[in-house]
Design a protein that fits this description.
The complex is a heterodimer of chains A (about 575) and B (about 425).
Chain A lengths: L5 E8 L2 E6 L7 E7 L2 E11 L2 E6 L11 E8 L1 E4 L7 E2 L6 H8 L17 E6 L6 E2 L4 E7 L2 E6 L8 E6 L3 E4 L5 E5 L4 E4 L3 E4 L9 E3 L10 H6 L7 E5 L6 H11 L4 E7 L3 H10 L16 E6 L5 H19 L4 E7 L1 H14 L13 H9 L3 E4 L5 E10 L9 H7 L4 E2 L4 H5 L12 E2 L7 H24 L6 H18 L13 H16 L7 H19 L6 H17 L4
Parallel strand pairs in A: 8-21, 19-24, 19-25, 20-21, 20-22, 22-24
Antiparallel strand pairs in A: 1-2, 1-6, 2-5, 3-4, 3-6, 4-5, 7-17, 9-11, 9-14, 10-13, 11-12, 13-15, 15-16, 18-23, 23-24, 25-26
Helix pairs in contact in A: 5-6, 7-8, 10-11, 11-12, 11-13, 13-14
Chain B lengths: L3 E2 L2 E5 L2 E5 L8 E6 L2 E11 L2 E6 L11 E4 L5 E3 L7 E3 L16 E3 L16 E2 L4 H4 L4 E2 L3 E6 L5 H11 L4 E9 L1 H13 L6 E7 L4 H20 L3 E7 L1 H14 L4 E3 L2 E2 L2 H9 L3 E2 L5 E9 L8 H9 L2 E6 L2 E2 L5 E2 L2 H4 L7 H23 L6 H18 L7 H15 L2 H4 L3 H7 L4
Parallel strand pairs in B: 9-15, 13-20, 13-21, 14-15, 14-16, 16-20
Antiparallel strand pairs in B: 1-7, 2-3, 3-6, 4-5, 4-7, 5-6, 8-10, 11-12, 17-18, 19-20, 21-22, 21-23
Helix pairs in contact in B: 2-3, 4-5, 6-7, 9-10, 10-11
The chains are: A alpha+beta (about 575), B alpha/beta (about 425).
Bound molecules: adenosine-5'-triphosphate and magnesium ion.
Adenosine-5'-triphosphate sits at the interface of chains A and B.
Chain lengths: ~575, ~425
């Protein structure tokens, strides 16, 4: 074993320690500061001379100058192995349910538990045979983890080729049991268990190549899939002022998006919001598998009152777990709420380090860290020909709701879709409050470009007419323009807006989106005739009512068809089309 | 024997620096000066230098004064005898009665494990339609009143506290005007609620550092009651003073400000207080109702802005009324589906129409011709303002919903409301 360094505390400033060390330290290695009988996990973040600055992942209360510090030589890492799914972790991969059993209502500093259940047995089936030569990421065997086949792979940290010397028979093993022995070309022997460690701040890159994301990730949110789609393996951000609906939107995505694995990083936001997921998911059924939604989810929960440094780590923990499952050929969706809180954690630490601040006191390296994080998304071709993906969606909470701020701007530079939430729309209760004119996406929609163009055109013209009306009044607006305005409002109300909390309207399948969108376009294409504006307004009000009710009906059910006929009849009432 | 230090090497703002050994971070000390004895707390350690924030302020402290470390963090009594008592931010009795020493607990304790929280589901009735109907208050919610100085926010807080069915009321006053302090005290007294209340009061004339302690004292006590299965309501007024006190310390400590002079950890600092609101699995709850006065009536100012990102909604108090726009209870959907079947529909419809009314008002002010629809809206808006928004209205939720239907029926026909037909059939008033 490596001789690990020792040191002693010489300064405490909030969650930053200055430590004088004896021999050597490594940047980003984990160390423990010892305060009486508790050991506080920390990470080296700067070294100068014989002093290192450490961020502590816990409260530093009662630490004294002179207290001992033990360095570990290991970078901040997570455990990867079967049993991650359904778990609820803090930012450092401590299992919160298990912690609650031990420490009760409150989190207790210095208590760290194994991330994976060490007692549980997994049904192991070998894939590799004795004599096989494996590279990092190659499959040794598999275990069933809920609905997935969880592959046990040669650890990603192994360099070169390793030969299987022995591998276990099929059977039930615990995560820490040895399941295989491998030998390197130089003759070094290693025992392997079902768990491997990986440092969170380094991307896992055991794949052949990254490929361009092209397939639409179906989220079942109409305004997203149709207007501002997200791709499988793509990235998107949802900036918005407080209360605009970022979290509600992320929750909807975590329930309805068609991904294999969903990882939710509740990063510096409200604990209550995570509780909703914790308490609801086990009872919600994933329509695709018939199992509870929890079986495809991992929750990383480092809420706003939990230690700030662990918040900084939490997004990396989350993305590392996603990368692990991507290696198995699965499609992962990572939702981070909110990346601004992560950036603020960086800012707090940068301030304590007395670094030269950039804009709004964020550190100068903010932009490259944000880019580095989103870069870990992507669709990849694995060495065995399969593909896997990580889609990352981050919410951004700009100060004052103003997008001209460092975190939003840095994020916009790197993501493939921008779903901007607007105060104006959320105040008007037009949910999801994604702005239909300001947002953009580089990915492919579920409807054709032609149709999309038409819808966009209508929205744009409608807004122009509305603006004009504010200046010259309704009476000065001609009825054709007025009709365009009503049509754009109609499109907004019945298609872009969606009731997240309704069982049917909350999730619109790809097929239904195409079907309903065509119907909406039919209304837009129809030329109606009205005697006056009040009649026109009245007509669209009624049509909107019919349509909204339609949205609440089971697709292609009895009621749905009846309502559709009523809508058709309504359109005919005023149509001048032949 | 505790060692006494006499070497104060720096005095800046309310922070003094001494050279001392074996001192724990966040530990308390006593500073004895010609002005008397004040508590102080360690806020930074650097080699042999200890930085202390002096609760009573540094005025009158001399370099030769005594500093004695107490080897423990700030504590507050959590005994039942607290009820009916009034303290300063530093926990010293303000009511002339004896200090409490039993059952001492740390303030600013660790975060609740999210796994031990439950989804809040109990409505708190206030009798105020703008809250009960449109932005229902929920047990364990954390919600501020946003307003400008001069609005009757303390009256509103007191009124909700008196009307709410809770076991314990804890008032944390920060930079409170003396009159407001007396107002709270008298109101609690008159309504017979003093015996189930505890007050931590920092008035505008008290040392600023004590202001910083108020939320932690109030919330530590709240937590101890909640763990004893009590439903606790905490009133914090005014959190803007708390944030400003934090700014003052940060500047003294030469921290780099992030936004308009406020420290970069303003969000985390506010959040660690507000997040004490909780509904415990198998114990009581803490509801936090705060006030945040907005400097310059600007909601994008760092204090209301950061607060909005933390709390579960906000009530805008403007012109003595709760504004329908901008006000939001984020927990309302946890409860308003279980009150009466028409609750959500009335809420959505009335607000939507009120938004249309505001637009019509704008058009009217620009001299545009009013359509039939506009006239309907104008009538509706006026009724809405007097029946729903006026803070003197005090009626139960059900009555408010009935009044909602009545108002709609007086102004519109059924289709114009856009309410689902089955609800209309059930609730539309028959003339
Ligand atoms: N799709 C929706 N349908 C109905 N109501 C919604 C929807 N989205 C948001 N809301 C309303 O807006 C409130 C705030 O939404 P949410 O919590 O998602 O905001 P946020 O943008 O995450 O805010 P913050 O930045 O403060 O966390 C919700 O509590 C709900 O009342
Ligand atoms: Mg949110």
């Amino acid at each position: 074993m490596l001789e690990c360094g020792k040191g002693r505390v010489v300064g405490v400033n909030g969650n930053m320690l200055t430590v004088e060390f004896d021999t050597k330290v490594t940047q980003n290695e984990v160390a423990y500061a010892v305060a009486g009988d508790v050991r506080l996990k920390s990470e080296v973040i700067r070294v100068r001379g014989n002093r290192a600055d450490l961020q502590v992942f816990e409260s530093t209360a009662s630490l004294k100058v002179g207290d001992p510090v033990e360095f570990t030589g290991d970078l901040l890492s997570v455990d990867l192995g079967p049993g991650l799914l359904t778990k609820v972790y803090d930012g450092l991969q401590n299992p919160l349910n298990e912690l609650a059993e031990q420490t009760g209502f409150f989190l207790k500093r210095g208590v760290y538990l194994p991330a994976l259940d060490t007692a549980a047995k997994w049904d192991f089936t070998p894939i590799a045979k004795i004599g096989d030569k494996l590279k990092a990421g190659d499959k040794i065997g598999s275990v069933p983890e809920g609905i997935f086949k969880h592959y046990i792979m040669l650890p990603f940290s192994f360099h070169g080729e390793w030969e299987i010397v022995s591998v276990n028979q099929p059977g039930a093993y615990a995560v820490n049991d040895v399941i295989a022995t491998v030998k390197s070309t130089s003759g070094e022997m290693k025992n392997l268990t079902m768990v491997q460690k990986w440092p969170v701040k380094i991307p896992i890159k055991c794949y052949k190549e990254k490929i361009l994301p092209e397939k639409t990730l179906i989220t079942q949110q109409r305004i997203i899939d149709t207007l501002f789609p997200v791709a499988v393996g793509g990235t998107f951000c949802t900036p918005g002022p407080f209360g605009a609906g970022k979290t509600v939107l992320q929750h909807a995505l975590s329930k309805f998006a068609e991904a294999d694995i969903v990882i939710i990083a509740a990063c510096g936001e409200r604990a209550g919001e995570v509780v909703e997921i914790l308490r609801e998911f086990p009872h919600l059924e994933d329509p695709k598998t018939g199992k509870s939604l929890m079986e495809r989810s991992i929750i990383i929960c480092n809420t706003s009152s939990m230690p700030v440094a662990a918040r900084e780590a939490s997004v990396y923990t989350a993305v590392t777990l996603a990368e692990y499952y991507r290696q198995m050929g699965l499609n992962c969706l990572l939702l981070a709420d909110s990346t601004s809180r992560w950036a603020q954690a960086l800012r707090e630490m940068s301030g304590r380090l007395e670094e030269i601040p950039g804009e709004e006191a964020f550190p100068a390296y903010l932009e490259s860290l944000i880019a580095g994080f989103y870069e870990r998304a992507g669709l990849v071709k694995l060495f065995d020909g399969a593909s896997g993906s990580i889609t990352i969606g981050g919410s951004v909470s700009p100060a004052g709701g103003n997008f001209e701020e460092p975190v939003t701007q840095a994020t916009l530079k790197v993501v493939g879709a921008f779903l901007g939430l607007s105060r104006e729309r959320s105040d008007a209760r037009r949910f999801p409050a994604i702005h239909p004119l300001d947002s953009w996406s580089h990915y492919k929609s579920v409807v054709s470009d032609d149709k999309l163009r038409k819808a966009r055109q209508t929205l744009k013209r409608g807004t122009e007419v509305n603006q004009m009306m504010k200046v010259i009044g309704e009476e000065g607006t001609n009825i054709d323009d007025f009709q365009i305005y009503l049509k754009s409002e109609f499109l907004d109300y019945v298609y872009l807006q969606q009731n997240t909390f309704d069982r049917v309207d909350g999730a619109t399948s790809e097929e239904r989106q195409r079907y309903v969108f065509d119907k909406v376009l039919k209304v837009i294409d129809t030329k109606f005739s009205f005697e006056d504006k009040d009649k026109a307004r009245r007509f669209f009000l009624e049509l909107r009512q019919n349509f909204t009710e339609w949205n609440y009906m089971e697709f292609q059910g009895e009621k749905f068809k009846k309502q559709e006929a009523a809508i058709e009849a309504k359109i005919k009432e005023r149509s001048t089309n032949a | 024997m505790r060692k006494v230090y006499h070497r104060i090497i720096q005095i800046a703002g309310n922070v003094i620096t001494v050279e001392a050994e074996n001192v724990g971070y966040n530990e308390l000390a006593e500073v004895k000066s010609s002005r008397g004895v004040s508590l102080a707390q360690v806020i930074r350690l650097q080699d042999n230098k200890v930085f202390l924030q002096v609760f009573a302020g540094s005025r009158g402290i001399s370099t030769g004064d005594e500093v004695r470390f107490l080897q423990q963090p700030m504590k507050v009594s959590a005994s039942e005898n607290l009820l009916g008592r009034i303290f300063t931010g530093a926990g010293v009795p303000r009511d002339g009665r004896a200090p409490l020493q039993d059952d001492m607990i740390d303030i600013g304790g660790p975060s609740v494990n999210p796994a031990k929280r439950i989804i809040p589901k109990k409505m708190i009735r206030t009798g105020i339609p703008m809250i009960d109907v449109f932005n229902t208050l929920v047990e364990s919610q954390k919600i501020p009143v946003f307003s400008i100085a001069g609005e009757p926010y303390n009256k509103l807080l007191a009124r909700i506290a008196m009307q709410a069915e809770v076991d314990v009321i804890i008032l944390g006053g920060m930079g409170l005007k003396y009159d407001d302090y007396l107002f709270f005290k008298n109101t609690l007294d008159e309504q017979g609620a003093l015996s189930r209340s505890v007050m931590f009061i920092h008035t505008a004339s008290d040392p600023v550092v004590e202001c910083l302690l108020v939320p932690d004292m109030a919330l530590a006590v709240a937590e101890s009651f909640a763990l004893k299965k009590k439903r606790v309501l905490v009133l914090l007024t005014d959190m803007t003073n708390f944030a400003d006190a934090m700014k003052e310390i940060a500047i003294t400590m030469e921290q780099i400000p992030s936004n308009r002079g406020y420290p970069g950890d303003l969000y985390s600092q506010l959040a660690s207080r507000y997040e004490k609101a909780v509904d415990f699995d198998e114990a009581g709850s803490i509801t936090i109702l705060a006030t945040t006065t907005m400097p310059g009536d600007d909601v994008t100012h760092p204090i209301p802005d950061n607060t909005g990102y933390i709390t579960e909604g906000q009530f805008y108090l403007r012109g003595g009324r709760i504004e329908p726009f901008g006000s939001l209870s984020r927990l309302k959907q946890q409860v308003n589906g279980h009150t009466r079947s028409d609750h959500r529909a009335i809420m959505d419809t009335m607000i939507r129409l009120f938004a249309d009314y505001r637009e019509t008002l704008e058009k009217q002010s620009m001299g545009f011709q009013m359509s039939t629809w506009d006239s309907k809206l104008l009538k509706y808006g006026a009724l809405f303002e007097s029946r729903m928004m006026d803070l003197s209205v005090n009626i139960p939720l059900e009555e408010a919903l009935d009044l909602g239907w009545k108002t709609l029926a007086e102004c519109f026909d059924k289709t114009e409301t856009g309410i689902k037909s089955d609800l209309v059939e059930q609730f539309w008033p028959i003339k």
